[in-house]
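Dear Dr. H.,

I hope your travels went smoothly. While you were away I took the liberty of generating a structure for the chain from your last submission, since the lab meeting agenda had it listed for discussion. I wanted you to have the full record in hand beforehand rather than looking at slides cold. The sequence, exactly as received, is reproduced here:
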Amino acid sequence: MEPDSKPTFDNGIKVVADLAHDTAGNRLVLDGVRSGVKLQIQRGAVGNDLGHAFQNLVQKLESSKNTTPPFFGEELPLDEAISSDFRLYSQQDLTRIADLRSIRLRNNPPNRRPHSHHTSSEYGRIVHSMAFRRLQGKMQLFPPVESPLLRNRLTHSLEVTEIAANIVKSLNDAVFAKHGKHPNVKNFFIDTSIVATAALAHDLGHPPFGHSGEMALNEFMCGFGGFEGNAQSLRLITRIENRLVEEFPRRGSSIREVFENPFGLNLLFRTIASVIKYDTLISNSSNSEDPKKGYYEEDRGIVDLVKKLLLKNDSSVCTLRTIECQIMDLADDIAYSTYDLEDCFISGTFTPADFLAVEGKTLGQVVKRINKKMGSLGYSYELNPSDVQTVFFQLFDDITIPNPKSQYDFGLNVDQAAYVSSTYFEAKAIAKYPLLRRRMTESLINNAIRNVSVNSWNITNPCLTRVDISPARLLLIECLKAYNYVTVITSSRLQIYQHRSFKIVKEICNALYHDDQNMMLPTYTKELLQTYLESDQKKYNFDSKEFVACDAGEALPDEVKKRRFISDYVASLTDAEAMELYAKLTSADYRTIFGIGS
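The corresponding predicted structure, in token form, is as follows:
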């Protein structure tokens, strides 16, 4: 492969960034222009020009950031808020559904334990749930069967939890370092257990096969409330995953008790709030082709109840996005952008060298996706291809910046070839060797954690205190996510798999729905469905003045109930369970008539 034009070198230091590989002769050359996009990174004598270019880009981003209004309340910096009556957690935040019902029935509050003990059980309620264990059989980026080294939804959730806990530690340490001797300092500490529980639970509702499974279920539920992974996570922890509580001993059918007194995992209201990423109602009449992010109309009552408990002013005009939810979401983005990158290295999908030589059309798609996301976050500056290349070169500066000890003379062709060869093989080594990959991922994660901060505290609605991440780190995360989406998720290999998995989920849903006698469902699941159809689903309302809970709401039509139940059941299946059930429904080639919870 010959270069379109010869690169020029200024003082022997300007390095052209596009790498090309001649497979016939195994020869590496510099390609000055590719697809009309000039990819040049200027180098100073000590290798600082790349850093300056990246800092200039970050400054442009910072200056284009729209002023963000407070999250529905007055915000104060820590130095001013520390002397106020600010408390990040109130007694109502640490209340459970069962607590409210106990108050209603017995007219007295339940015995409360200290705060630390009250939140410590949250984590275990998720870990010991069936839905959490099923995540080990659900794909993250690649199908679980490809390699045990590749991440699944469970290992991803554990990594998100660890990152989120470290963000909390960093933020709490920052508060303590500044006002550690102030008597109110503990009122500003973020609860690690609540954040960790939110991180563990954030992907519980994801169906088999990831996004393609979500699309198939949403199509099945179109016009009946839709389907969406985040909404399903909320439904799981508040309804489907059930934990019997002492306040309500079992009476008669335990299955009926589950539906008539749905507690879910009986989590704290503050924990439930931390799982609500999108405070948007998905109407039962929703017919959106793409899954609409939010919560189901059937679960509107629990969201209204959470908002009335947690928010001090008119909850109907507030958008709920708690500080714990923001931390969980940031940790998810950090893990997704970093570890999906590593999985691509492990699978051989690409190496760091591919980031330094992005084909023009692909680069354009990456830039478009980044600008859309950054615009939604309030940044008006639109990046160009050179900006994104600058980010990628900054990301892999360990291999793109020449080692001063190498003493390259870029006026000599042999030194140009030596530099390119060295860069290429270092990129291959990072992708190949676990220790090098680990050093890279640790650096990315630790730098991201250090760049998360709380700059002001919401003294009106403490739970809505805003968490920020630096524009530089945000840009890097979004660039990695966009590159992964364009080059991997939309690649033919994954698209073929997603097409097949969409068909599998759709076929299962239709077969189960048209089974009038529900004979194909496992025995226990069939009994659950029958009880669900006969019972009234509960909606929760809460009068904060009288501290009384009450049930209200109309029964749903049987067709909506059956579709929702089937979508709950299919969404709970692992990838392997879904493929086995599909084989039983459509093919004579299956291994066993047993399995799938029968």
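Two observations you may find useful: Residues 15-69+350-489 form one domain. The radius of gyration is 27 Å.

With kind regards,
E. W.
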